[in-house]
Write a structure and sequence with these properties.
11 strands, 7-stranded mixed beta sheet, 4-stranded antiparallel beta sheet, mainly beta, 4% helix
Length: 120
């Protein structure tokens, strides 16, 4: 399994950038993809996840109402649309995959290298 994130960078507060993660190497559709983030001085937290088998989505408290997770199946890409970013959203954002969304929430699975998002 390989996960490659892109789309991070420096943005102004209020902007709505998109993060992408090209996910490859899965043997079947029984897995879960998701986004996590680690803010400066804080523990890693779950942002959003999506089951590859049924498309069900899950959101962390910080993401509800502002972030949307989706997939471009034809391009094996997981997408995180982030709206109205705030300086407190600054941190490293990671793409991850596990055999189930419960496993992913527990921190198991494979992780990408991460992409930095800086909001000023």
């Amino acid at each position: 399994v390989q996960l490659v994130e892109s789309g991070g960078g420096s943005v102004q507060a209020g902007m709505s950038p998109t993060l992408s993660c090209v996910a490859s190497g899965f043997a079947d559709s029984n897995y879960c993809l998701g986004w996590f983030r680690q803010l400066p001085g804080k523990e890693r937290e779950a942002v959003a996840a999506m089951s590859a088998s049924n498309g069900r989505t899950y959101y962390g408290a910080s993401a509800k109402g502002r972030f949307t997770i989706s997939r471009d199946i034809s391009n094996n890409t997981l997408i995180l649309q982030m709206n109205s970013l705030k300086p407190e959203d600054t941190g490293m954002y990671y793409c991850a995959a596990a055999g189930s969304c419960s496993s992913l929430k527990g921190g198991q699975g494979r992780w990408g290298q991460g992409t930095q998002v800086t909001v000023s």
